[in-house]
Amino acid sequence: MKIVVCIKQVPGTSQVQIDPVTGVLIRDGRNAKMNPYDLYGLETALRLKEEQGGTITTIAMGPPPALEVLKESLWMGCDKGVLVSDRKFGGADVVATSYTLAQAIKKQGEFDLIICGKQTTDGDTAQVGPEIAENLGIPHVAYVEKILEVKEESIVVRSLLDDVTIVSEVKLPCLLTIEKGFVTPRLPSYKRGRELGNVEIPVITFTDLEDQNEKHFGLKGSPTQVERMFAPEKNTSHTKITGTKEQIVEGIMNALTERKLV
Q1: Distance (Å, whole) CA 45 – CA 115
Q2: Tens-place pLDDT, residues 130-157
Q3: What does the alpha-carbon distance between residue 134 and residue 155 come to, in Å, rounded to a whole number?
Q4: In the predicted model, what is the mean pLDDT of residues 210-237?
Q5: Are 62 and 85 in contact (CB under 8 A)?
C-alpha cells in the first residue's frame, strides 16, 4: 500500500507574530512544532504499513524550517519526506493550499491512500483535507476514528460525528482525515535518526508543478483573505466574591446582571 500523509509545521506557542501587510502568520520555524492532529494521522499510517506493507511519503507545505517536521516523520518510521516550498505559495488560504498540495501529490505518482489530520491548530478550518480530495477527484471521509478493514479495492472506516457514528466503505484511492485520541502516536526513534543522518529531503517549487498559472497559488489564488489579524489583549482583572453560599450566589447574579449577561 502506498500512503501519502500531509503534515504541517505550526506555531508551538500562542505568542505568534503577524505580518502587518499581508495579515498572515510569520512562519520562521522558531517555537514551531508538528501539528498535533497530524501525529494521529502519522500513527494511523504507520500501523497500516506494519499490517499491510508498503511505503509512506509525508508532504509538508511551508517555508524551509518545515523540513524539521518532515525529518521527525522519517524518524518515526516514514520512508520519504517532500517539502512544498516557494514564495509564490505564501499567504495561501485553504483553497490555494489544498490545490497546491494536490498538485504536489500528483508528482509523487500513483497512491492508494492519503491521510491528513482532522485539522490544524493554527487554522482550525478542517477543510484542506477534503479539498485535496476534491482537487484529485477521489472520495474522502472525515473525522475517522478507526480503520476497520482494508480490502483489495476499498477500505472500511468508522467516523465519529457530533452525535452519531458512521461506518463507511470507500473505494481506493481515497483520502481520510483522522480524529485525535484513538491511537497513541509513537515517539521519533533516536536510533533511526542517527541511522538516517542528515537525510536530503527533496523540495518542490512552483516551477516543478504541472500548473504554471500563478493565479492558482498563494495570495493570488486565494478567494478569501484576512482583513485583519491580531493577538487578543489579555485581561487579568477579576472580582472576588466571598461569604455564605447564598451571598456568593447573590453576588454572582448581581455581577452578571450589571454586565447585562443575564
Answers
A1: 7
A2: 999 999 999 999 999 999 999 999 999 9
A3: 18
A4: 85
A5: yes
More confident residue, 236 or 4: 4
DSSP structure string for 31-61: TEEE-HHHHHHHHHHHHHHHHH--EEEEEEE
Nearest of 130, 82, 78, 136 to residue 112 by alpha carbon:
136
Grid cell at residue 82: 517532500
User: Residue 111 is placed in which grid cell?
Assistant: 497512491
More confident residue, 63 or 17: 63
What secondary structure does DSSP assign to 95-144, as a single string?
HHHHHHHHHHHHTT---SEEEEES--TTT----HHHHHHHHHT--EEEEE
Cα dihedral sign, 88-92-94-95: negative
Site of grid cell 493565479: 215
Q: Which CATH architecture is the domain 2-221 placed in?
A: 3-Layer(aba) Sandwich (3.40)
Nearest-CA neighbor of 70 among 95, 102, 35? 35
Q: Give pLDDT tens digits for 14-25.
A: 555 666 565 555
- For the chain, which residues make up each domain, given as ranges? 2-221
What are the start-end ranges of the E strands in 62-153?
A: 80-84, 113-117, 140-150
Q: What are phi and psi of 166, to 5 degrees?
A: -120, 135
